[in-house]
Structure formats: structure tokens, C-alpha cells
Amino acid sequence: MTMYAALLRGINVSGHRKVPMAELRTLLTGLGHGDVRTYLQSGNAVFSSESGDEDALTAELERAIEEQFGFKVECLVRDAAYLAAVAGACPFPAAEVQGRQLHVTYFDQPVDAAHFASLEAAAYLPEEFRLGDRALYLHVPDALGGSRLAAALARLAVGKGLVATSRNWNTVTRLVEMTGGGA
């Protein structure tokens, strides 16, 4: 069995696209997954599965959510090893900043510098970003809420047709713990 995290995009925001976590746990269990747990109300679930296919698990979950709740929710499913690798590769001093100042955006496909080449990064300092393979690390000293860089990156990602969802560093590390990826 492999442990996974399901990252749901854009749910339970300002009362819209409600997916109660208890119902999400029931849905994942009904799909045959084990060890199902959720974290926070923002669309984070962990589960075990015999499947080794993240794309198939993602498609299955998206279909089930649409059938259950009546609206489409983009999801990303990542295994414990990947989550741990992303946390371990953080190019910023994670131990020296608050969790709300550091974020990871997970993408549905690999990204490279060309995706964001039109962005003049120096114009957004002291905010900074670095790319991983299917992840983007974002350091925002004043938090995400008023980040101009985060908004610019989101526009570029959507413009390139990428499915993306972000988590703050506290959630990143908690999902690693919950999936056993740090073991």
C-alpha cells in the first residue's frame, strides 16, 4: 500500500464549493482507499491505496467529487515520497521563517523556467520564487494575502493551462508527516 495526499483546489472558500471533510473521508473510503484522514477544511486528505498511478487516482477522485457534490473540483494526488522530496528540496530557509511566509504550489505537470519567463522577478522583491519539477516554492515575507508576486504567478500558471494548488509550509510539512513521507 502506498500513502497519498489528495490536494483539492478551491473548495470551502467563502462558503462556496462546499466539500465537508467528513463527506470527503466517506467518499475516499467508498472508493476503496484505507487510512483516510483529512487536514483542515481546505481540501487536504491522506489515504492509502494499492494503486501506483497518481493520474488514475486523481481522475477517479475528481469524477467522484463531481458526482457527489455536483461541481467539478480539480485535484492533485501525490505520494508520500514525492511530498517528502518537495519538502526536502525547499530552496528557502524553512526553519527560519514562519509557515505563512513560505508556500508550495503543486502543479499537474512539470514546469520549467519558460513557463514564467515573462515575469520580471526583481520587480517583486523581497518576494521570491524558485521552481521544482512539479512544484513552485514561494517566499513572501509579508504573507500571501497581499502578495503581488503570488497573483502574477497564478495568472501565468492559469494562462499556461496548468492545474495548480498552493499550500503554506505548515500544511506542506503536516502532509509529509501524515503520509509517513518523512520516515
Automatic annotation (TrEMBL):
Species of origin reads Streptomyces laculatispora
This one is known as DUF1697 domain-containing protein
Q: Name one Pfam family in it.
A: DUF1697
Q: Which SUPFAM superfamilies match?
A: SP0830-like
The protein's superkingdom reads Bacteria
